[in-house]
Amino acid sequence: MKKLINKALVIIFLAISTSAYAATQALLIGVGQYQDPRFNLGGPKNDVLALEQVLIDKWGFTKNTVTKLIDAQASHDEILKALKALKGKTQSGDQVYIYFSGHGTSRLDREMHMPLPYSSGAFIPADFPITYGTTKERYAKLIVGRRDLRPILKELDDSGRSVLVVYDSCYSGNAVRGLFGKDELPSRYMRIPTKNMSGYGLDDDEAVEFEIVPKGDDRYPYKNVYFISAASDAEKAADIPERWLKRYPTFDGKAHGAFTNALLGVLTGKVKSDFNNDGEVVYAELSRAVRGVLKAGNFKQHPQTLPQMKDDMTLLAMRSVLGVNKQLQQEVTNKPVSGPAPMRVLLDSNDKVLLDRLSKVSKLQLVTERADLVIRQQGRDFLLLSGSFDLIGKLRNPEIKTLIGRVQQELWKKEINTALTAHASFNMELSLSESNKGLVAKEGELIAFTLRSERAVYLLLLDIDSNGQLNILYPYTKSELASIAANKVVFIPGELPGQKIKVQAPFGTDHLIAIGFTQLPEALTKLLGASILLEGSEHFNLVDALLKSKQYAYGFSEFDLITLPK
Question: What is the C-alpha to C-alpha distance for residues 391 and 18, in angstroms, rounded to an integer?
């Protein structure tokens, strides 16, 4: 590996050769101009053009191997025609990249009433009749996942092609993220009018037949097809128009989807994605990097991948992105190590005493926008909110000392995450076992976590709950001190309904931290049987020292679980 140092920029060039590439074909579809201008989007055209350039410059594609359909070109018939042509342009072993940017819709919206199958979203092409036609006619004009895409993808999959499908659309208007904030950015969800249609010139609704697929019969049908979508079922995917670029800057200063902007940052090498530093970027690393960009930008969306970890029998998540064995070029800023950046806090209160106390807290910066933590007063109570305005926790009539202590707990959490991320040496992934809702779980639901590591590990799983309390979820018994095999998917606390955790109050955000050690730390044996760790206690100090130690090689994964009442 060569390092060329130019001022503060270190460019790391990894092996580049034509043999690093598989044969490739890309189909890039972007629709920002619709028949009804109220639904127009600023980003899709720029998304497609920027992706085309990145694929050519960095990933071994050529002008002849990239097909673009933009705005009016992306009609229903032309999209299907281009999709069906992919098989004839490729052969077994080739890489296929299919990308959609624009509005989506689905059956999930209770007010929409389009007759779509369960577990199947729909992409809205440029010629979709938004304000005229019967339901049957409009349903026929959607690009429906189960009806239109699955047969094409199944044929590519069965004939040995490796396929990456990326959606920068959202499929539900029923978002439950960021409920304590307001939506500034337009979303990529289109609510299609199908009821109370007077004034739209629409015919009456009529029945449309479709295959009803039971919710339980939705096994992942592919061996070589990997999906990444911009948001979960419970979130909206944001579009960043030109008027919001100052507040939400993009990698090239142009309008983009928030998800695609993050993806472009990763694919260009501007965002670190080779987390285990082995010179190869796999799909799990790509997804993790994109999620990190969106979380850092306080966007209310958490990209989803399929297959889910529990269904990934062929380890698709561990395959090289687009079949490229080496990341071509990664840019790393050479900054002096100065510790983690201060936590940005926005105080939504007129309490001058609290403002003064916060201003004296070390490693905290008071801001008026784009905060990491929002403190909002409601009468005598205070809400702690994330930068995306999800509820972290609620303090009822707290003393200022108690509130400051709770803020310091959030500081500790940020510092631990920064330290663990910096020194992790291999990939490990933690998620909800049923991850289609992203980060959200509702009261009464039964949940479990799935974990997979690329190396055999001894696991420590921590939960910082909505009250700021540190809890040990794993290990609890002596049997759980055993090593977990590499690439084995484990369910925590278990896969059976009776083993799962029931979501209940208090509601807010739980922060899950998984650390997998390649050697068994002595501290883990001393923590057996402990569950709640009080700050300053012997067990708490053991965990704090272990997390800050560089004695052991480890992998690391974390995510925020947002729990909501019914």
Answer: 49
